[in-house]
Amino acid sequence: DAKTTQPPSMDCAEGRAANLPCNHSTISGNEYVYWYRQIHSQGPQYIIHGLKNNETNEMASLIITEDRKSSTLILPHATLRDTAVYYCIVRVPSKGGSEKLVFGKGTKLTVNP
Amino acid sequence: NAGVTQTPKFQVLKTGQSMTLQCAQDMNHEYMSWYRQDPGMGLRLIHYSVGAGITDQGEVPNGYNVSRSTTEDFPLRLLSAAPSQTSVYFCASSYAAEAFFGQGTRLTVV
User: Fold this and answer.
1) Which residues of A touch B105 (CB under 8 A)?
2) In what side-by-side order are the strands of the sheet with A18-23?
3) Chain A to chain B, count of Cβ pairs less than 8 Å apart?
């Protein structure tokens, strides 16, 4: 699985967009980008994933650059409950599940009132 | 749906004791995994399973055993607890891209 680089911490004002970057310059053609978050030592929570097109769901948007060497997770209107550690993971999807996720240290996002 | 249920939530063991961390899921997922998380670190994979009767080692398997006799259950056994196994343990089950995690078991070995 490709290695990822994320800033250790970021701050965001409540109600503003939070843009979390991830570098994955060694990503290969069949590797997807996944984002998870972990709120205050709870179990991680899946957010979104994508291959090369931009993706959006009810939680966030994922923007992947054309060369796929970096991506940005966007929380459009951050709330205090979005304060968490955000993990960017790059991997080849398994046939039936996500059984081998490799977590780095992630980005600690603090949303301030 | 309860999702992924881990028991116990907290446990204190003495060095050399053995115990089993329980994990159960009610989503009929084939894929299940165990991770540990040490302070300030990301999660590290201990063991995983891609179906009943099939298990494999992850990044840090030493000192742990697993078995998968049913789709629902994936227990993690500590054979002889050591202080280095003090950690928070997370179980996960997954289908396709999304993994669902339990709330964790906080284990202290003294």
Assistant:
1) none
2) A18-23, A70-75, A61-64, A55-56
3) 82
